[in-house]
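DM from R.C. (forwarded with permission)

"hey, sorry to bug you on a friday — could you get me a structure for this? deadline for the figure draft is monday and I only need the backbone to look sensible"
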Amino acid sequence: MIDEIKISPQNCYNMDETGSSIGTIQAEHVIIDTTAQSKYELEIGRQEWVTCVECICTDGSSLSPTIIFKGAKPLDRWIPESN
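My reply, with the result:
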């Protein structure tokens, strides 16, 4: 498909994200769906989720990884000044 519509390497990207929990866990419960063979874990405690995003181009360049924390509202110092 890339060759058919002539997409150049500098215009082809791959982006991925992953999430992790931070904080303490007070207890853990496991929920099992007996019909679907799936296992779900519920973690109770004081914790937050953090997301990491990365983006890489097929020409070898990449964007800096971005880490996303929960926030009530953005602060000016979080946003870099334009040059």
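R.C.: lifesaver. The two ends are 37 Å apart (CA to CA).
me: no worries. Residues 9-70 form one domain.
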